[in-house]
Specification:
single chain; about 50% helix; 5-stranded mixed β-sheet; alpha/beta; 14 helices; 10 strands
Length: about 290
């Protein structure tokens, strides 16, 4: 059996491929970003998602994850997986490669992730050849759910947002004052997830002119910091993966058109496309 994972900071999608089964078994667990979890938590997530019998039958693991870009971060994930997948060869890759493979397959282009966090790369059909500089949720992640949250919260608590948005926010989050906000950001786990948790509010009010301006500002900054440095030397189609890209693709298309950039595919979750990618590789023996 082959186990494939696409993991962000909020959730992990799993696909278990069996050579005798016509369709993969899909499962969901919490996000396993090595900047926020340790090896023991990775092991626990696997044990909570699959049976011991399934884990021991797995021969190959392909784990694609947010934060899996350095030796140390990959080691955290690898150590957690090898505790329970004792008969498997384990490969840990960055979630950008998952996005590129799911979006473009064996073609070339620019692949982007816009979910809880954000990132982008140039892909040549096999490998990532150039990657945008990413500073994570504290200094970067423009265009992402947590960047939306940062812009919204700052406008709400500085009274820069219009009255109707402030009133609607207080109605939806009556207990959230400045003290609680700062506590969540600086003293609680997963501040990036907390910031991204306000995405449903933004989506609910996406037709409001102020909220439109927040969304467009975030996407323009994503273009400025992530896309333009890549696109200036690689004028390829730009493809998007992630819940934020999926939910606001009309606005993204509008912004790309304004900048005379060619828009490609959109997918919400890459796990099915990744499962097909690895199934084909396994069948062809490549």
């Amino acid at each position: 059996m082959i186990l494939i994972a696409d993991s962000g900071s909020t959730k992990t999608d799993w696909a278990l491929l069996h050579t005798k089964a016509p369709k993969p078994l899909f499962s969901l667990s919490k996000g396993l970003n090595p900047f926020f979890v340790n090896s023991e938590q990775v092991t626990q997530a696997l044990e909570n998602t699959f049976s011991e019998e399934q884990l021991l039958k797995i021969k190959q693991v392909y784990f694609y994850g947010a934060g899996c870009s350095t030796f140390d971060s990959k080691k955290i994930i690898h150590s957690g997986i090898e505790q329970v997948c004792k008969n498997a060869e384990i490969e840990i890759q960055h979630d950008l490669l998952a996005a590129a493979r799911a979006l473009i397959g064996n073609k070339s282009g620019i692949a982007c992730i816009l979910g809880t966090g954000s990132n982008a790369c140039v892909y040549n059909g096999k490998n990532i050849t150039e990657e945008a500089v990413s500073f994570g949720f504290m200094l970067g992640d423009e265009g992402s759910g947590n960047h939306f949250g940062r812009l919204l919260l700052k406008a709400i608590f500085t009274q820069k947002a219009p009255k109707e948005i402030i009133d609607a926010f207080k109605k939806d989050y009556p207990q959230l004052d400045l003290s609680q906000l700062l506590n969540h950001l600086y003293n609680q786990e997963f501040p990036n997830r907390f910031l991204a948790s306000f995405s449903p509010f933004i989506k609910k009010h996406k037709d409001n002119s102020f909220i439109q301006s927040v969304i467009k500002q975030s996407f323009e900054e994503f273009l400025d910091y992530f896309i333009l440095p890549l696109w200036n030397t690689n004028k390829e189609k730009i493809h998007f993966q992630g819940s934020i890209a999926w939910n606001y693709q009309d606005i993204l298309k509008e912004i790309l058109k304004k900048h005379q950039m060619e828009c490609g595919y959109f997918i919400k979750r890459p796990i099915e496309a990744l499962a097909n990618y690895h199934k084909e590789l396994n069948n062809t023996g490549r």
